[in-house]
Amino acid sequence: MAHSFICDPKTAVVETTKGKIHGYVYDGIHMFKGIPYAKAKRFHAPEPMDAWDGVLETTNYGFVCPLLDFESKPMGELAVPHRFWVMNENCQNLNVWTPACDNKKRPVMVWLHGGGFEAGSAIEQIAYEGENMTKLGDVVLVSVNHRLNILGYFDMSAYGSEYANSGNAGTDDIVAALQWVHDNIEAFGGDRDNVVVFGQSGGGMKVTTLLQTPAADGLVAKGIVMSGVIASEQADQTGSGEELVKAVMNELNISTAKELEDVPYAQFAAAYKKIRPAMQAEGKYVGCAPQPNAYYAGEPLSNGFRRETASVPLMIGSVFGEFASFAPNRYDRASMSAEDGWNTIKEVMGEDAVTELKPLFDAAYPERNPVDLLNLDFMMRLPKQQYIRMRSEINPNTYSYLFNMDMPMEGGKTPWHCVDIPFFFHNTELVPVTQVEGVTEKLEEEIFESTIAFARTGNPNNAKLDTWKASTADNEHTMVLGPSSGVRTNFDRELIPAIAKHMGPVFERMMKAASGKIQH
Length: 520
Prior knowledge:
The protein is globular, with a radius of gyration of 23 Å. Strands 1-4-5-7-9-8-10-11-12-13-14-15 form a 12-stranded mixed sheet, sandwiched between helices. The longest helix is centred in the last third of the chain and has 19 residues, at 495-513. 30% of the residues lie in helices and 15% in strands. The protein folds into 3 domains: 5-69 and 86-234 and 293-312, Alpha/Beta hydrolase fold, catalytic domain (Rossmann fold, 3-Layer(aba) Sandwich), CATH 3.40.50.1820; 242-281, no CATH class; 330-513, Alpha/Beta hydrolase fold, catalytic domain (Rossmann fold). Helix 6 (242-252) crosses helix 7, helix 9 crosses helix 10 and helix 10 crosses helix 14. It is an alpha/beta fold.
């Protein structure tokens, strides 16, 4: 197949509010990379960029936020292909893919990357590439870099009003990026009144965090939360960061908080990582996650939903196996009978577990071997069930899904955290492990068409799938996406709490076995 490429002084030039930028065109898609949307001093709120003269070249990805941890040897790349980039604190930049810089007013998809609030980047996963989504969906795609970890979520408020929201600086960056989208995206062929914020894992958490952040009101029309709802006790960092700041200062042998602004990041990170474990064990504030305050209302499962967001439709989903599927396969599932599967569950969890779980699992997953209970996610599915019940009470457009396609790895493996991302971006061709003959292409079309339909209308229904009802407080209508996709109502409402009860210690052992294989 022949490809086309154009990069000349007159093509892909756009006037933004701060000056002109220049990108390039590849196979008809206009691409702009590393566009600065704000600037910021360490621990301070982002500020508008200064205007520039001439034309700013935006053909290279911009800096990504420095990481706290950087593996010396890549691991797990077959399951979740990654790439790494140049790190710098000046990471407030974004990327845009668009079919044309015209006045068509297409839906705008703003991608927020995973990695919790601590790691990741806008280009980290190969599946984040935007050409296919833009071309096949006729949408404008934006991906955002922002401050993370101790640069984005480190509460210094006890040391002066200039640091009042340092505990949420990363979220403040995202709001600044959304403001840039609002002010500029129509020049790229997008509709500033139809901005769909979507993200997976930490990116999904960022979507739910934005809905709890008044500064984002009016900047988000719709949201897609992929594997991004977690238990209340894991979601936020509460309390004051004063003790943490003092401990880091002592470790660095400095006497004023102001000096922390200029400490080289590597030294800052090393000091933080040294004192963090003990403070974390004592349940104290350690940063690296949003902090409830005047800026951020706190996660909604324990703080309640902000009524101001009641009109924002949501698609909320998770994956059958999530993190449990990273554990090495211990059983030959292909040759195992259902009876063998239940005997295995009995050996691992006990007879009482089999008695309680068997009728629930057989009803929820008649197509699966019972041994798959060992990989069934409850860490995200359980709070997601609660989130959907509560959200449905204030919003009639809350749609639930579950990704339920096994992958051709280790003789057949339940789907893991992140493996659904290529399907949403229509990028399965870039991730070899997603290839299942006769299934992948069909499922990719179902998921992609649902995503684009939701972006356009706030409703994911499309010709590729049967009717997908919005959930209510009483009935969660979950679109189970797999070889035979379809809606199942309240199908795992009792199963998930039951598996959570029986799998606790087993799950801890499995995660130790999966050490080094887990990717975000």
